[in-house]
Amino acid sequence: MTVEFVLLMVVVFSVGLKFLAKAPMDAFSKSAPRLGALVEKNIATGTGFKDAKGNTLMWEPPN
Predict the structure, then answer these.
(1) Which residue of 22, 28, 49, 55 is most buried, as measured by CB atoms within 10 A?
(2) pLDDT digits (tens, 9 = 90+) for 10-59
């Protein structure tokens, strides 16, 4: 009975580890294009940037 329990735990742990390792990569690969598009839009229009306190920052031409 102990051998079966250990084998079952190894299988459950292996499958769980596989999903835990793959999930962050899937989330990043699916959200990266959207995030890139938002950043590009903000850079192009000069709006949408906020400081640490949440205040909106306006673009100013460099000196």
Answers:
(1) 49
(2) 999 988 888 877 777 777 777 777 777 777 776 766 666 777 788 877 77
Residue 50 DSSP SS3 = strand
DSSP one-letter code for 54: S
The answer to whether the CB of 48 falls within 8 A of the CB of 41 is yes
Q: Which two tokens stand for residue 13?
A: 């742990």
> If you search the block for the tokens 């294009």, which residue do you land on?
33
How many residues are given for the chain? 63
| CA gap 21, 29 in Å, rounded | 14
Residue 29 near residue 23, CB atoms below 8 Å: no
- Residue 52: DSSP 8-state: T
